[in-house]
Structure formats: structure tokens, C-alpha cells
Amino acid sequence: MRHILLATLILLAIAVLDPLLFVAGFADGFLRNNPAQISGYTDYPALRAHLKEQFSGYEQRRLTNDRSPFGFLKHPLRGAIAGLLIDRYVNPTFPRRLLAPSHHTQPANSPSKTLPSPVGFSGFSVHSFNRFTIRLILHLQDPQFNGRVIGLVFSRRHFWSWKLTDIRLSDPVIHAIFQKAGG
Which of 137, 176, 135, 171 lies closest to 152, judged by CA? Predict the structure, then answer.
């Protein structure tokens, strides 16, 4: 009986700590500038669906407050265009494009310069046995993004496997993304 209880406790501890091990592997992909490693931890179809849902919801909320005569056309059109862009860019090449600007090769004899991290840890929350969120605060030079918090939502795919399935963005972050995209 004691062996069964001990084995159960060990499995429970592993199941509870498993998300932390996963996050370490995911973060390691960013630290090592390894897009393939990041993509291995990402469920792109789910990520695209959740991002489209957020951008569409944002545009629907804006539509209810828009008093312009063509708002009923503008907001659904912007939501549809955002959906097309999400389909085009949120795929396994996304981490490579995201990391490319920060990947600089330096001569062997020059001292390496470490850039400050563009994100900081803001919190961790467990929603269920199969879902958790890591909140990150953005440290970017752009004042529209600096200090904003985003949430990386991970979902269990198999007992020992987790995937990034959503990136939770606030309305100000979505608004800034639309502004950066030219409206």
C-alpha cells in the first residue's frame, strides 16, 4: 500500500512540475535563438484561431462605439484583413522572423554585447490540469507596447506534452498592432 501511495505522489508531483519543465524548454528556444525548438512547442492552428477570435472581438467592440457612417463596413473589414494576415504570418516561420532582427553575428575577437530582454516575467496561473498561462511584461522601446502585459496560454496535448495555443493580448496592444500595420 505504501508503494502505491509513493508512486501516486511521485506521478502527481511530475504532473504538477511538468508545465515548468515545458516552459524551460520553450524559453530555452528563445534564449538560444532556435525557431525550430520554439515551433516544436507551438500548435499553430489553435494559435491562429485564438488570435483571429481576439482581433475580431476587438473590432466588434470598436464597432459598437463607432459613430461614423461607414463604421459598419470598416470594422468587419479590418477584422477580416487581420484574419488573413494571421493566417499568412502565424506559422512555423513566425519564430524565425520574430528572432531574426535580434540575431547578430559578431567577430570572434569582439566582446559580445548582451541585449536586455524584451520581456519580463509577470506571473503564472493554472486554469486547469490541462491549461496554464504565463504572463509577460513587455520591455520595448515603443511606448505603445512598453509595460503592456501579454499572456502565453499553454494547453496539454498529451499527458507529457504541452503546446502554446494562445497569446492573450489586451485591447491597447491590439490597437497598437493595428496602428503599426497602418490602420
Answer: 135
